[in-house]
TrEMBL record:
It comes from Alkalilimnicola ehrlichii (strain ATCC BAA-1101 / DSM 17681 / MLHE-1). Pathway: Cofactor biosynthesis; tetrahydrofolate biosynthesis; 7,8-dihydrofolate from 2-amino-4-hydroxy-6-hydroxymethyl-7,8-dihydropteridine diphosphate and 4-aminobenzoate: step 2/2; Cofactor biosynthesis; tetrahydrofolylpolyglutamate biosynthesis. SUPFAM superfamilies: MurD-like peptide ligases, catalytic domain (SSF53623), MurD-like peptide ligases, peptide-binding domain (SSF53244). Its EC number is 6.3.2.12, 6.3.2.17. This is Dihydrofolate synthase/folylpolyglutamate synthase. Its cofactor is Mg(2+). Monomer. Belongs to the folylpolyglutamate synthase family.
Length: 437
């Protein structure tokens, strides 16, 4: 196998590759970005010895809320004294964000060493970029003295690379319409794919009260004990905090989560329910729950920065359900100033519902042209906005740097700038503006 990816750029010998060399090579390793199926990952993972953890495993799937749930689990279990191993995707600014031990991203050197082990075990098996990274993370976790693995599904569940590991607890946060070209065109089909992370006789926690029947049907077939939001547990807002209730158990007066947005109470509640399911193996007391609630952080998710009296709100919301939550947050926090939207999205994302939802709360739109061939052209987004009734006079298109300069010039104290549409949109703005702080 050649030591160069499919580009003209020269590469050093593989034993001297840096992290960026490995990643560039992996991007050209598979002819497709997404290649559903577990056989390849299982074969390589077994050769690596990375699929049989010696500690509990919690796997989280769902259309939205996966990253938040992992953040709460990591913070709560860490506060309880457990050494966690967490794998999430995608990353925002650095690849290392995906693989964390004890809450800290692993080093470039550790990741490249894991990539070398994966390559030795691969033996010509084709792997996608995501599969390669997943196997590297599992290899690192297998060598670490972790006390619990926290795994976020990349897409779907049944055929996702993360599902090569058997979880002791499965959490399904929500089911919405996203990745329909891969998972199916309706919630029942998507639910069936996400329910694929369940295991026979092992507990599953459901974070949404109205999940499709395909999820409960799968649990019933596997005789997997189900703890469901709205039926087995719920939360209640109070003046100075919130309560978590499940049967005879109550946790009154919990602090507000460190992650903002009403939906975060849904995410925190299902995490607490999950930890209660594993309390015999992973006991977590109330003090640790509270510390974890307060300290949980997730870059690019309702992340706020203030500059010259203007609040910048970064959120990777990119489908109708997540954008609806973003719009509700913007509406609930409405002040006297204007709301300025800075938006770009990828080709595979439908625009109409997203634009209609945010069009109701955004006063002025800035649509940058990203240096990414997968991004919608700003002209197409502008046309979509006009179709929803947005006046052309408040729609601006152009290069990212020029639009950021225009926003900085026009925004006044009390205004809010909402940056959303995809991880790549938030990343591009953060890199161009240095998190604008």
């Amino acid at each position: 196998m050649p030591d160069t990816p499919g580009s003209a750029a020269p590469m050093p010998q593989r034993d001297r590759w840096r992290l960026e060399d490995w990643l560039r090579w992996q991007e050209g390793l598979s002819p497709v970005e997404i290649n559903p199926g577990l056989e390849r990952v299982q074969a390589v993972g077994e050769r690596l010895g990375a699929l049989t953890p010696r500690c509990p495993v919690i796997t989280v799937a769902g259309t939205n809320g996966k990253g938040s749930c992992i953040a709460y689990l990591e913070a709560m279990l860490g506060a309880a004294g457990y050494r966690t191993a967490a794998y999430t995707s995608p990353h925002l600014l650095r690849y290392n964000e995906r693989i964390r031990l004890a809450g800290v991203p692993v080093s470039d050197e550790a990741i490249t060493a894991a990539f070398s082990r994966v390559e030795q075990a691969r033996q010509g098996t084709p792997l996608t970029y995501f599969e390669y990274g997943t196997l590297a993370a599992l290899s690192l976790f297998s060598e670490a003295e972790a006390e619990v693995w926290l795994l976020e599904v990349g897409m779907g569940g049944r055929l996702d690379a993360v599902n090569a590991v058997d979880p002791d607890l499965s959490i399904i946060t929500s089911i919405g319409l996203d990745h329909t070209e891969w998972l199916g065109a309706d919630r029942e089909r998507i639910g069936a794919e996400k329910a694929g992370i369940m295991r026979p006789g092992r507990p599953v926690c459901l974070g949404q009260a109205d999940l499709p029947d395909s999820v409960s049907d799968r649990a019933r077939t596997l005789r997997a004990p189900v703890t469901a939001a709205g039926r087995d547990f719920h939360w209640r807002r109070q003046a100075l905090g919130w309560d978590w209730l499940s049967g005879d158990e109550r946790l009154d007066g919990l602090p507000w989560p460190g992650l903002t947005g009403t939906v975060q109470l849904d995410n925190a509640a299902v995490v607490i329910a999950g930890l209660r399911r594993l309390r015999e193996r992973l006991p977590v007391d109330r003090a640790a729950l509270e510390r974890g609630l307060r300290s949980a952080r997730l870059p690019g998710h309702m992340e706020r920065v203030r500059r010259r009296g203007v609040e910048w709100l970064f959120d990777v919301a990119h489908n109708e359900d997540s954008v609806r939550v973003l719009a509700e947050t913007v509406r609930d926090e409405a002040g006297k100033g204007r709301v300025i939207g800075l938006f770009a999205a990828m080709h595979r994302k439908a625009l109409s519902g997203v634009l209609a939802t945010m069009g109701a709360v955004v006063d002025e739109w800035y649509l940058p042209r990203l240096e990414d061939p997968q991004a919608h052209p700003p002209e197409a987004v502008a046309a979509g906005l006009r179709e929803t009734g947005v006046d052309a006079s408040v729609i601006h298109t152009g290069g990212l740097s020029a639009l950021l300069a225009a926003v900085a010039d026009r925004a006044r104290p009390g205004d809010r700038v909402v940056v959303f549409g995809s991880f790549r949109t938030v990343e591009a703005v953060m890199r161009a503006g240095g998190r604008v702080d």
